[in-house]
Protein 1
Amino acid sequence: MVKEVRMRFALCCAAAALLAAGCSSMARLDVVVQLDVEQIKESGTVPTVEVNIIGINDAELPQWQGYSIDQYWTAEDKLRRGADKVIMKFGETSKIVQMLKKDGAVWDSWAEKTACHLYVVADIPGVSGKAGSDGRLLILPLDPKAWSRDRITITIKAGGITCTPSPKMVEKR
């Protein structure tokens, strides 16, 4: 009897933790990140761009949504330094297409903290903005229902970042 009560209590605690975190499962995606090829052809140069990809949970979302991208890219930014992220660097001597594979170890780390969103931020030369409307930032859902396939393509353009395909709208429970 005591064993059964303890087991039920443990299951209730686990369910409450999942509900509090805001999402019950996380889509693991192959994330292809590429520079805009047409733009490179037109300009004749490959821009130097850094892209950071970060898995964030619902509790972290408000902090990240309101954060200044200009501040994020400063040398001593604590939020950027402390983030569990994938860094991709593009330039004259690097590939213009890079990929975060869905079986990469970082996905395990993000799953442990119940990541529900993919925060994609790029340091694009000549592009600036303000919190909430900055073209250097995409916040994508990691809800499996938001994606019709397990591969997305992030394209870095002169004016900002795009994602193909676009995620589907998913109702929050």
Note: Confidence is low (pLDDT under 50) at residues 1-21.
Protein 2
Amino acid sequence: MKHDGMCNEDAFLVAATCRTALIPIIYLGTWSEDHVFGAVWDLDWHHFEFFRGGLSERGNAFYGITNMLDRGSYSWKNAMVEGFRPDGYTVNFTEYYANTSNLKLRVLDNAGNPVAGAMINLFASPSMGTSSNFVKCGTVFTDRNGNADFKAGEQKRYLAQAYHPIFGWAPRDSTRAFSVNSVNTVAGSTYSANLVYEINTENDLQVNQVRMDGNGTYGIRINLRSQDVLTHRNSRDSQRSRFYLWNEEDKGNITAFLCDSINFENFKRKQPFEAFEYYKHLESAEDFNLPVQTNSKNYLVISAHHSFTHGQNVNAKIDLLEGVSTSVSDINSGKVRIFPNPFNEFLKIESDEQELTVSIYDMYGRLVNSLEYPYIWNPKGLEQGVYNVIINDGKNIYSEKVVYIK
């Protein structure tokens, strides 16, 4: 029997045959070294290929390979080895086939904002043995913080470029790329680089945050958790499959605000609007209490406005509360006193009531501190910015924003 096929043809045939026999196998490629093969699962992944001459009667010295060696390897050094999920998402197998270094890439805009959901194309040299040309070796995607941390092979130089379906290429000229490392990588070492867009990607809502008027008698308690879901199309997958990658850390990126019916309609029309509370890049909220207006409908809007190519899975529970104070005068008129505001070292909370429940949240809705008597907050180790203080004295719930300045 004569067989002159390519490794790609063999890899597909072997994968099809194994899957027909219910043997778990994944199709792998080391693109810059121009070779593809497979790995079968048996408590871990094990290299397997039946390459070219392995199907001929005699084979020959170069092509007659039937490689089932544990962690099978070759004479060359691999830059990256990738496998594909059925939906097209790439899985990094490099550590099975190479001594690896760690690459930490971050995609930002010109204002320093992270660019989530960018596809990073990586190029390696030397490639295909000893060639000094840079050849595409893999694809990774940035998380909600614009980061892509992954393993790549040793003794290589790498270039990287980013593509985002909304913002296009970085660098703007898609024939160019950013340098990741100028000398060959060393196994166990870490190499970092920023890929920067020449534009500002922040597209904030046209919102003006305002204080509620008067005293209300109701509020809401919010418990929600958002989970980030990266969705993209892999250009190397010939089917152009769209994949969905769920964040294993169970963290999301949502925008949430509270408004009345008039401003809700303005928001839907993409017009400027006012909101009583406004949070962006929110991950979760646990027992987060907010006062609401009693003279109009109230809308709590949860949006994926700032997540770009990432979807958001949100689980939320909203409870109605009674006995809530909404007036700023109540905070400083003797019932509850918060001072100084802004502050740069300590924040003091006083009340005529002896027992208080004091919770402090950051602008992402994360609980950062719970205070006990004497209700003094020292935010040492936290970033400066705006924090939300929620106070429950057993009769009323108070909400006040404070500004921490280092």
Note: The chain has three helices and 30 strands.
Protein 3
Amino acid sequence: MRNIGIRYAVPGVLAAFLAVACGSSGSAERRTPAAAGGSGGSGAAVSAGGSNALGGANSSGGSSGTGAGGGPSANSGGTPAVVNGDGGLIITLPDDAGFNGCTATAVKGELRPVMLAVLLDRSGTMGVWHQDDNTAFRWTPVTTALKAFFADPASAGISASLQYFPLGVCDPAIYANPAVPMTPLPDPVSFAQSIDATVADASGTPMYTALLGTVTYLDQVSAANPGVNSAIVIATDGELVHDCGDDFTKVIAKVTEVAPRYPTYVIGIGNLSGLNPIAQAGGTGTAYLIDLSDPAQTQQQFLSAINAIRGAAVPCDIDIPPAPQGQTLDPGLVNVTFSSTSGSTLLYMSADCSTDMGWRYDNPAAPTRIELCPSACQTVKSGFGGSLDVQFGCATQVF
């Protein structure tokens, strides 16, 4: 039987599963963690051009190998032979790569996407309130950063919605219809048009009412998109929650209730440490607090905060697809490497994540996902343009 693998597209990171049909045993091998060699070797993901569009146009080649003892060497000679087969991309790895002439199959697939529901404060203190005009210090730098985030190619793989509060009403159902519905990013038009048509001059901060509507909306879109990770982002310049019968305790209770399915991130526009309990209840630690002393700095800090939230919301696990009929997946024949412009690193299987650059199965007895350990997760998320290569067919390297 031939094992099967799958290629995944993730936000900022390319992940490729390679299934290798080899004669090696399924026993895992214990290795000392070591960084792999540079690019150009065999034994990792191979991309191909042409109609499959898995790599560059009309070209083929392999990303860097692992270089670990007992596994494929990043500096081994030989070039993988690539042909297009009926089941996807067929890759024959050379004997001197340590694979004994194994044949690999890759098919296209996708990681679970992420949906962010953004709630943006448009109260008068964000812009114009009586005789005061904070537009240049709050609304403009914040919305400029938001528009950049929504249009950023690095946001690919994420969808977002945008709703404002207050809206002058106390009906949660009104807030359940966002100004911009859930939209795949990047999108340089929809969000910018909505923001440019909105003025921050409203009275009150009915955060609880707006939150109720947002949760209702997320429930609806999540039901239509099972398996999607979702989160709420609240950006506000007010610690006080009032109007519409709202109060702080109601907000805390609601974000606590929905945190298991919708973590709540908070961006405080100003030194608003009083917002920290909301983020804590929402399962996201503390609020991101933005300095208001300089508009340029405010814009940059807000952009950094929303980018950090994007990274935190992206899942660090990879669904293992079911094998096609007549094919199998052997959990003892899986290895993971991360390749970037600085080289390639072998990630070792570590059930307790006791190594910095490790991974593990969600269920060792019957795995359905590969989970990256915390340090490896952070490395992969920060490695925009890199590739996460999951190889099937050779004995798993265990920490």
Note: The longest helix spans residues 295-313.
